[in-house]
Amino acid sequence: MASAHTADVLVASNRGPVSYEVHEDGSLRAKRGGGGLVSGLSAIGPDHNAVWVCATLGDGDREAVRRAGGGLLPAEETGGQRVRMLDIDAAVFTDAYNGIANSVLWFVHHMLYQTPLEPIFDAGFRRQWAAYEAYNQAFAEALAEEAADGAAVLIQDYHLALAPRMLRRLRPDLRIGHFSHTPWAPPDYFRLLPDDIAAELLSGILGADRAAFLTRRWADAFTDCCHAVLGPGIPSGTRIGVHGLGADADFLRERAHRTDVNERMAALRAEIGEGRRTIVRVDRTELSKNIVRGLLAYEQLLEDRPEWRERVVHLAFAYPSRQDLAVYRDYTAEVRRVAGEINSRYGTPGWTPVLLHVKDDFARSLAAYRLADVALVNPIRDGMNLVAKEVPVVSDEGCALVLSREAGAYEELGEDAVVVNPYDIGGTAEALHAALSMAAGERAERSKRLAAAATALPPAQWFLDQLGALER
Ligand code: G6P
């Protein structure tokens, strides 16, 4: 079993910094992830005894936990981090993750339901909710076991909304923070949830000393929900914080100039063709990212502004995500269908208007960032959207940013972006035209200011700020 009561800093999240695959010969391969939490935990230095608690997401992870005897994973596989992966029962995980977290909470906060058919809160939903409680309880218990006296615990996201209160009950001595990486729904939408569930979710997070969000807008929505659902609102013991996670400029600039990225740039240039402008998008194939409307806006641009035909290419990278859910599989198919339709309608022997890539390739994403004349970031709603922040940092010549006003990044980047209402396809087509037509000097100036705003709070500092704010 894991060493008990020794960690002074703890992070809890559904997806950990490492995942495992079982190969045919029975060997396990560990794959390390990146992101703000990984940089943050590396930044706190060796004086701390930090532990990251996460869930097993598949058979490879379960096998790794079995081989580690349920204790910490081998440090050489985790990039030196002390990781405790919880072997959550597969059926419980499916109900908690696919059922509640991704099909209910994600949908509520991104306002994705297509009423009147959805949502359905029936007996099946209640079973999934019980699994979500069990999943949160498993995290709370593991954290209570690992944490030293008075330790700081940073609990992440909508998967773990109940864990702060559960942990508080087990260990009143701990300093607990909760961070939401998603938007927070306004009260009228949040109250689609059954009243008892809405109250549980809010009280769960209010079990923390501090509840933090990516933007002021999401923090205010949370406060409004507390007033609407719980009446008295935020108890005096819980503080509300805002930390706008920024892009990691040092890492990105170094990584984007390595050989593999240069090779992919050459390949992409050959695909795009000489002298053409490039509109780039890079997303998980995620309903909230609004990829289909982005394609339709591009199509309308080609229709309304024929001068751009043959002169522009849309590089659309849409990496499959959450494919266990039928609605995501359908959406992935729809993205392919619409891209194919645009190509057959407008394409010519020497010009493919949309280059759709679906195989996740970080080096190729960076290559596209460097080549981008225009970045298209048009989510319906998004907690922050780091692509909007990363492209201006990496692009070689400076890029124009077409940005949805519903992305958290809008709060910091809105002034120098071409801002769109993500539902307005005609307006997005016009924004693409304006971005493509922007004079080179203005584009470079704006791109510089976007990059400066995007890197104001690098991931390591973002993490340290949260930790600092938990000091009593
Ligand atoms: C969002 C969430 C993260 C999550 C990520 C990927 O950014 O805020 O918590 O890790 O999506 O989603 P997935 O379901 O693949 O973990």
UniProtKB/TrEMBL annotation:
Q: What class of enzyme is it?
A: transferase
List the CDD domains hit by this protein, alphabetically. GT20_TPS
**Keywords of the record:** Glycosyltransferase, Transferase
Pfam families per the record? Glyco_transf_20 (PF00982)
Q: Which GO terms describe its molecular function?
A: alpha,alpha-trehalose-phosphate synthase (UDP-forming) activity
Q: Which residues cross the membrane?
A: none
| UniProt cross-references to PANTHER family, sorted A to Z | BCDNA.GH08860 (PTHR10788:SF106), TREHALOSE-6-PHOSPHATE SYNTHASE (PTHR10788)
* Family listed: Belongs to the glycosyltransferase 20 family.
Question: What name does this protein carry?
Answer: Trehalose 6-phosphate synthase
* Organism expressing this protein natively: Streptomyces griseochromogenes
What taxonomic lineage is listed for the species of origin? Answer: Bacteria, Bacillati, Actinomycetota, Actinomycetes, Kitasatosporales
